[in-house]
Amino acid sequence: MASATSPASLSLRPTTSSSTNRLPSTSFTSVRLPLRRLGFAGAAADPLLTLHVASKIRSFGTKGVRGVVSMAKKSVGDLTSADLKGKKVFVRADLNVPLNDSQEITDDTRIRAAVPTIKHLISNGAKVILSSHLGRPKGVTPKFSLAPLVPRLSELLGIQVVKADDCIGPEVEKLVASLPDGGVLLLENVRFYKEEEKNEPEFAKKLASLADLYVNDAFGTAHRAHASTEGVTKFLKPSVAGFLLQKELDYLVGAVSNPKRPFAAIVGGSKVSSKIGVIESLLDKCDILLLGGGMIFTFYKAQGLSVGSSLVEEDKLDLATTLMAKAKAKGVSLLLPSDVVIADKFAPDANSQIVPASGIPDGWMGLDIGPESIKTFSDALETTKTVIWNGPMGVFEFDKFAVGTEAIAKKLADLSGKGVTTIIGGGDSVAAVEKVGVAEVMSHISTGGGASLELLEGKQLPGVLALDEATLVSV
Predict the structure, then answer these.
(1) Active-site hit among 152, 271, 326, 375
(2) What is the DSSP letter of 400?
(3) Full set of structural domains in the chain with CATH
(4) Is 119 a catalytic residue?
(5) Does 275 appear as a known binding residue?
(6) Alpha-carbon gap, residue 265 to 263, rounded angstroms
(7) Is 110 noted as a catalytic residue in this protein?
(8) pLDDT on residue 416
(9) What are the binding positions for (2R)-3-phosphoglycerate in this chain (predicted)?
C-alpha cells in the first residue's frame, strides 16, 4: 500500500541484474526485481566429526538442514571409550533455565541441549561432574540453587543424577570418589563463589582437581573468561568442546563464513548501537541485509524523514548513513521496511494504523513492520539458500505488533522445509520462533545471546580459544 507514496530513498532494492557472486548494489529506488540465485561450494573439513555431531544432534530431536563445517577445536566426539571409561570428566554446561516462583522449570531447552554430550560420556563409562551457573547470585542464594533441575535432568538422562551442596570442598570430593562409571554428579551453582567470574586461578584449580579431563558445552558463557569456562583448561588435558558448543561454532562461524548463496541476514531489535558490530560484520559476508525493529527509525531519520515519536538514536544518525553507504559499496542489497505499523502509545491496547514509512505523523511511533514490507522481505528471502536472523521486527511481546516478527518466523520455517539453511541467532528471535511453534524445523537455534552476537561480530570467545586444537583429518 505504501509504494505509491513512499519516497524513492526508502525502499532499498536492487535495480539491475548481476553476473557476479554478489547481488546488485544498494539502490535508492522503488523498483522490485527478482534477486539472483547463486551456487555454493563447501564441504566439511572433518567428515567423521561432522557425522558424529550430526548424529548426536539428531538424537536430541532437532530437524532441518545440517550443513556442518568442522571448526579447529577438538571435540568430545574425538574421545573414544578407551579415553573415557572410568575417567572423571568436568563438564561445563549452560543449565541457566528460567524458573517460576514455585521453583519449577518453565523452559527446559538448555537442559535438553546438554543431553547429547552427557549421554555420550556416560555411555562410554565416564564419570560426569556437571557444572553450571543459574541466574546472577550474589554469594550463596537459595533461589538460584540448581536443585530444581535434578528431576528433569535425571528424567532426560534415564539415570538418577546426584546433587552436591557445593562445587568445591571435601564433601564434593567424597561424592566424586563414590561416583560409579556412567554416573552424573551435579555441582551447586558455580557462581555462588565470586572467584568464578573473577577467574581466580586457585578457584579454577580446585574445580579442576575434581576431574581428569574437561568438556565445555556451555556456549552461552563461552564469551566470558570465567574459572569454569577458561581457567580450568590450564589444569585439565584434554580440554575439548561438547556437541552443543561444536554445533554452535559450526553454524555461527562455519555456515556464515562459507554459506550457500544467496546468503541473507535479518537484523532487528530496538537499537542500532547494540547491533553495530553484527551489521558491519555481516556486510562483509551477506548478499541481502534486511533491517527491522526499532533501529529502522534511526535509518529513516538519517535520510531526513519524519519519524514521529518513534525510537531514534540521535547520536547514531551518521553511523546509519555510513552503514547504508557501505552496503552499496559492497554490493549488498539492503532492505528497509517501506511501510510500518504505528501506535499512539507504547502499550498493547494502543490505537494503531498502517502508514508508509515516509508518513509517520507527529505523536505516533512505529512498533512493527507493515504488510507490504512483510511481502517484500518474504520475496527477497525466497531467493536465498542461507538465512541468519537476530532480532525481532517489532514489539512482538504485544500481540498487535507481533505480526511482522511472526511472519518472518513462519517464512523461515517454510524455507527450512525447502532445504534452506536457517540459523536463529539467539535472544528474542529464538523466543519468536518458539512462540510461533516452528523452532523444531529451523536448521539451528543458538542457545547463546551475548556469545552469539560476539561470534557474529567476528570476535574470539575465551571459552573456545582455551580448548585444545583439533587434528584435522585429510580427505
Answers:
(1) 271
(2) G
(3) 47-245 (3.40.50.1260), 259-456 (3.40.50.1260)
(4) no
(5) yes
(6) 7
(7) yes
(8) 96
(9) 110, 191, 224
